[in-house]
Amino acid sequence: MNGKIGLTLLVVICLTYVGEVLGSDYRNIGFVQLPDLRITGIETDMPSINQLYTEATIPLKITIKNSGAKTDQTFKISIEVLDSNGRLVKPYTIQVQQDKFYPWKNGMNRGEVFTLNGKLIIGSSQDAPLSGKRIIIVVRADSCLGDESMPGYCRVKETNESNNEMKKVVNMPVQVFPHTGDEEDAAGNSSSDNTSIPVTHFFHIPFYFADSSVMPGALYYVNLTDQPGGAFFHRESGPITSFAFHPFVPRKLYYVNDNDNKIFLSVKLESGMWSEQVVYTHSTYVRDIAFHSDKDGNPAIYFSEASGAGGNGRIFKLVNGTAVPFYDVLLFNMKGFWSGDFAFDDDGNLYLSSGNCHPARIYKETFNNVTLPVEMASGFIFRDDNESIGGMAYKDGALYYTSWSDTIYRLDLKNGIRTKYTDLSRRSISDVGFQDFSESTSTGGARPYAG
Hints:
Layout (H helix, E strand, L loop, with lengths): L36 E8 L3 E2 L5 E12 L4 E13 L2 E4 L2 E2 L10 E5 L4 E11 L10 E8 L23 E7 L11 E2 L5 E2 L15 E5 L6 E5 L7 E5 L7 E4 L6 E5 L5 E7 L5 E8 L6 E6 L5 E7 L7 E7 L2 E8 L12 E3 L5 E4 L6 E6 L13 E6 L7 E4 L2 E5 L4 E6 L5 E5 L6 E5 L18
Antiparallel strand pairs: 1-3, 2-3, 3-8, 4-5, 4-7, 4-9, 6-8, 9-10, 11-12, 13-14, 13-32, 14-15, 16-17, 17-18, 18-19, 20-21, 21-22, 22-23, 24-25, 25-26, 26-27, 28-29, 29-30, 30-31
């Protein structure tokens, strides 16, 4: 058709009266300028705890941002604690305000960031001990807790009423008990322990350990009668800093040298000899290695890369020969240092040790399954001011960890009591683990293999 086509464009403009908007979500009304209050950060630091471990004061920093239009409305902030006692509002004190429970803010400009630095008080002298307890801190901006007859949006009408709240998991430190007297070390020598931690010289359970200073690398075995540890395995060359037995095939031993980028496997042959091979080559140094089982009981190799204070670290899962990122370790959550050591417990929780630094700490990260973290707990559960904390392994409610010298500690996660094994002939015990291939993993979760 050669003629011109004439088009008529009909534009229909629909206006909606703001006062008739139903519900609390105003995001679809483009011409309405409303505030948008968000909790953008929750940071905690080391708590101070009373002698009975029943009451704690937690330094708590809260960051709030207004991502919408300016508001002149005064609003309050609530801080709740979710634990075994339920969800309760707890006292939060800051120097510039008098309200014991609820801080207040007098309006916020567009894009303004507001920070509260205070102290959160949990527990009481009548409560059960807080040792090792897991709590969830819930912070909400423009809160109506304790108020009556308030509208659904509370005091500040916002573009989005669903993003005012943030949660953070905190694991309380494990209680340690006063030293009760001199103890014996593994060689039978009695000596005074000045760390105020009770120690004994035996675990009453067989275990393995590696000494990174031994060349070529070796693995040592300690049973109920064998002191000090007897040599179980020797490499042909190169040290061993971390190791893990295959959970179902005990003749398969995996290990790494933390100054190398390879994961090695040695298989014990029918002749009794060991055959070494490389099963994976990484792009940088491999610091630690562990086995971890999924909910169906299928084990996989996990390993870490780390640079101490040089940058964030990462834990990978080895899937069909490919390293799949599993978890990022942020130095911000680790007091600025992580050497790469980690372990899993039976419930799939991840434990991180800070490494060769003082004070040394153990952190616990909480997972809802074995592949994805739900919340960044980054809560330290144990601190040692005198020794380093290196390679770890979990077994039967306790963490076993090395001091990077001649000692391995067992930390009971329920009562905080430490026991120790010392081999005075060793210089740099770097990892500890167990050969638990006979245990079933059909119920799911991680098994206590070497980390």
